[in-house]
Amino acid sequence: MPELTIFIVEDSPVVLERLVEAVGDVPNARIVGSAGAVTAALEGVRSSSPKVLILDVQLRDGSGFRLLKRMRTEGVSKPETVIVVTNYPNDDYRHASRECGVDHFFDKGAEFHKVREVLLRLGQAA
Fold first, then answer.
1. How far is residue 13's CA from residue 16's CA, in Å, rounded to a whole number?
2. What is the DSSP letter of 90?
3. Which residues neighbour 67 within 8 Å (Cβ) at sequence distance 6 or greater?
4. Spatial separation of the C-alpha atoms in residues 124 and 52, rounded to whole Å
5. Residue 4: in which H helix or E strand, if any?
6. Dist. CA 23–CA 121, nearest whole Å
7. Domain of 36, in residue numbers
8. E strands within the chain?
9. CATH number of the domain residue 68 falls in
10. How many domains does the chain have?
């Protein structure tokens, strides 16, 4: 069965730990890297070619949207599935997510559990 490779872009150590735990029991899932900043994330995604990208909006050196735009302009392949998790689930961010080709947009506070649900579905399909 193919492996579900995941790269996480999150600058909060606490949230990163929660995301790692959410991936923990997903069948065939493996975290191939993580980063807390746009430049490090760009290099990590380029070198690991993950199937799934879990992405925060607010990062130390920019935004998750900036990362997605740089991936496009620098020819870095976009993962099959992009999941945004944010503490700022406003309409502007939702719109920007759609514009950037994000597949799932979740509020960290109210919808965090949905990240794991999506990963379980993807893990079963892998």
1. 5
2. -
3. 9, 38, 41, 42, 55, 59
4. 14
5. strand 4-9
6. 12
7. 4-125
8. 4-9, 29-35, 52-56, 58-59, 62-63, 81-86, 104-107
9. 3.40.50.2300
10. 1
- Residue 91: is it exposed, middle or buried by C-beta count within 10 angstroms (0-12/13-18/19+)? exposed
Report if pTM > 0.90: yes
Q: Is 60 helix (H, G, I), strand (E, B) or coil?
A: coil
* CA–CA separation, 43 and 47 (whole Å): 6
Residue holding tokens 């109210």?
A: 110
Residue 118 backbone dihedrals phi, psi, to 5 degrees: -65, -45
| Residue 38 token pair | 């746009």
The one-digit pLDDT tens for each residue of the chain (126 residues) are 679 999 999 999 999 999 999 898 898 899 999 999 999 999 999 999 999 999 999 998 999 999 999 999 999 999 999 999 999 899 999 999 999 999 999 999 999 999 999 999 998 876
